[in-house]
Design goal:
- The protein has about 180 residues and is mainly α.
- It contains eight helices and no strands.
Length: about 180
Amino acid sequence: MKETGTVIPGAVASRVQVDGLGREQALEELFAAHHLPLVRLAVLLGADDAEDVVAEAFYQLYRRWRRLRSADAAAAYLRSVVVNLTRMRIRHLQVVHRHAARTTGEVTDHVASGETQAVLRDDQQALVDAVRDLPTRQREALVLRFWLDLRETEIADAMGISSGAVKTHVSRGMAALSRKLEERR
């Protein structure tokens, strides 16, 4: 595996240079380096089916490979797709739960998936629960900033918002997390 390019924390071989490689070989390299960190990203953003979200992201990358501005933009594209797919699936599940609650009168609790249980340790659960309770944009901004260690411009690109909005979401999210975790003590 060649060693330059975009870094996603948590990957064993987290830097991948894919310029000059064919589509299939480049995707294989990207998958090896970024699959697990992207699953973790989806879990932290609240996806109940993180593996499916990441598989869909790689499928979308495969379909749109020739439209990328450069092959090295693939990791950023994957992050953006994971963020957007997770957001869409959470919205869909909220609608399904509201509809189910209206028709049956029952309220269903959040059920953790196998990926969630495998990725998260017990000592992280309080923080993850607090992050999960944040509004969607604040949660996305915090995860992209502090877990992936992205710059404001990269977060803005992934979320489709301005850098100023990223600063606002991060600031408000940190304040809300501080309040929630302080209440827990």
